[in-house]
Amino acid sequence: MNQYVTDFVSLIDSNSNIIFNMTYQEAAAAVASGDPAAVRKIDGQFAIVEKVGRQVFMARSLGRPMRYFLAKQVSGPLLIVAERMDEIYEFLKQRELHHQFHPSYTRMVPAHHLVKLEVVGCPDPNPVYTRFFEPQRNVLPTDLDAIGKKYIETLANECQKWLLTIPENEPVGVLFSGGIDSGSVFLVLYHLMLKLGMSPQRLKAFTLSVNGGADAAQAHEFMDKLGLSLFLEVVDVPLSAINYKEAIKVIEDYKSLDLEAATMALALCGRIRELYPDWKYMADGDGGDENLKDYPIQINPELTIRSVLNNLMLYQEGWGVDKIKHSLTYSGGQSRGHIRSYAPSKKYGFKDFSPYALPNVIEVAEGIPFIALTNWKEEVLYALKGEVVSRGIKAVTGFDMPVFEKRRFQEGAVPEDAFSKVFGASEVEYRTFFHSLYA
């Protein structure tokens, strides 16, 4: 016989949500309704779980992780929903049920889907996924000026909503490399603060420099060209402070590129916290690469330019929840990888905001006619982000934004000759260490 769940625990912190257009109670009611159209109306960065009778409804944007685990008890199953694996594990220890736990037994709620779980056990139920966010593709013209203006206007609109939620005496930071994404977020925030009559002295761009990494020089050049150097603070961190094993614990993952980025984010956020014990609000450019499909296709043997351009939100969601390649434990794409910026920031008590990862901004990006603009040429695709964003920044803020050659965060923060000294030889090494945490 099926035994209905009488025990349900949510460890999700509703205070970590950033919801612009309704109260948390209204957003929770939208999720509890089971109506994906109602969930799509939630504007912001969120992770929400609600139980209604025998059903549990879960939904999240890219900006926040959410996991669940179903444990067995004599009295019936126990469903636990949390942000992190270790939160689930520690709760199970309190109930003396931790012997059932393994990281691969947890399930991540995929971003942009309303997940319904029938809370019955023996056998465990399968979740039902219903997409609540499905942007229309190829709806924008091929005019790069028009695309850029629409894209950055939408980014600015989301950033303005965020700024208006921040107390006027609180400073605002940007995790800044001088690249296209962090650079555009900084310039939009600076422009908005002037427009809204806020003091721009509250704003600061933090750049990580490990033993003289290249990003420091790039960040200086970016700011110097715009006459904004007084807003830049280069944060120096010694190579000895770079610890990928600590980053594995923080992001609870072992995927090489995301782990490398998270290791640097952890070092940067940790040092900022030492320098500024009371700083709360931080923004970043995470999601910009995914939106404009700006990743080297050749480094992933599973990808071709046709798969990248033909699949809706491939870099944000992976292959999709209905595909064989979809991981239940980690989901896919940025849905998995956004933890690289979120978790380090959260560990050090920052309220992190990633405007490029918001549905309204992604919706504009997915409307770009990539095929018509690139004619399936990879080099044209890689150049597209700089064109779109710089034109949009010019139209919205008036700044001629410098555009440098793409470089990953982890590659710019530390000198090339020191990279191998702080990271493992392969993903196998990372995975082995992660699994040892629960051995």
Automatic annotation (TrEMBL):
It holds the Pfam family Asn_synthase. Gene3D superfamilies: HUPs. One of its GO terms (biological process) is asparagine biosynthetic process. One of its GO terms (molecular function) is asparagine synthase (glutamine-hydrolyzing) activity. InterPro entries: Asn_synthase (IPR001962), Rossmann-like_a/b/a_fold (IPR014729). Residues 169-304 form the Asparagine synthetase domain. It comes from the Bacteria. This is Asparagine synthase (Glutamine-hydrolysing). It comes from Parafilimonas terrae.
